[in-house]
Amino acid sequence: MRSLLILSSLVAALTISPTQARDFQSSSVHSLDYPVERAVAYMGTLINERSGGKLGIKPLPNSNIGSEDFLIGRIRNGTLDMGRFSIEALNDAVEETIAPALPYIFKSRANLRQVLDGPIGDEILAAIEKTGLIGLCFYDVGSRSFYAKKPIRNVDDIRGMRVRMQSSTIWVAMMKAIGATAVLMPYNEVHGALSTGLIDAAENTWTSYISSGDYEVSKFYSLTEHSMAPEVLVFSKKVWDGLSKEDQRIIRVAAKESVSHMRARWDEREASEREVIMKAGPQFITDVDKKSFSDAMLPVRLILLSDHKVRHMVNRIEATE
Questions:
Q1: Is there a single domain that holds both residue 168 and residue 290?
Q2: What range defines the domain where residue 68 resides?
Q3: Pairing mode of beta strands 201-204, 144-148
Q4: Angle at 30 (CA atoms; ends 25, 36), nearest 5 degrees
Q5: What is the CATH number for 284?
Q6: DSSP states of 114-160
Q7: Residue 15 lies in a domain
Q8: Tens of pLDDT along 112-159?
Q9: What is the Cα Rg of the chain in Å?
């Protein structure tokens, strides 16, 4: 009888173990050598090591074809385990995400990192859980600026232009305030839309501007640096709730540790791509009147600050040195 019980236990163990082993599927829109993709891969290595080879991460190239709302829906319903997207995509659902998405909210990249790495960042990540997502960490990807087939030196230069934006009610309102028309479309469609004239301009970090090839069809990158909104890495709560507390801890810690890895890779990328930029021939417009953009956007910002929670978080961000 004892032998039979031991045998049964062994069979049960062998049956359970394979079902516990899992590679979490993660969205991927950039090439796998892109800094944020390398950071997620690094996170996967840490998870694999610390789980004894039981868990890992499998990137799915082009897995977020479509809008960011569609991607979020996939993660929320568990058909995709994890992914990352711009924090603006959560502005309508999580008011805590509004403050870091506001234009000209951060004094510098160092100031941004100080905020995201501290209690304010932790509060924002915790607030995301009410949407069916587990906030893991932020990846700061530099300043975003406008680029087009002509220089944009002040707010008057962008009036009447059709500008590709991410899905965010707030940023649609911001574009309206500066006299532009926001056109919402997936990231992978921007290059073609610029080529055909479907849109007149777009906005992104200059590293994305280069890696996407958009510099080939829009030669003028105007350093408005209007946003330093980070990307957020999230996990499906539906999947998360089925994991053990230890596995959850391993994932959270690995995600946090991937941030410094991502920042190092990002700095390397920026340095190496300066040579590409010099050869490619895009023109960087530095004499930009940023105040003209900030002033034009002020009415929308004041409306947002009428919310006590948003105003309180903005005050705390601005007080962070």
A1: yes
A2: 22-140+230-273
A3: antiparallel
A4: 75
A5: 3.40.190.170
A6: HHHTSHHHHHHHHHGGGGTEEEEEEE----EEEEESS---SHHHHTT
A7: no
A8: 999 999 999 999 999 999 999 999 999 998 899 999 999 999 999 999
A9: 22
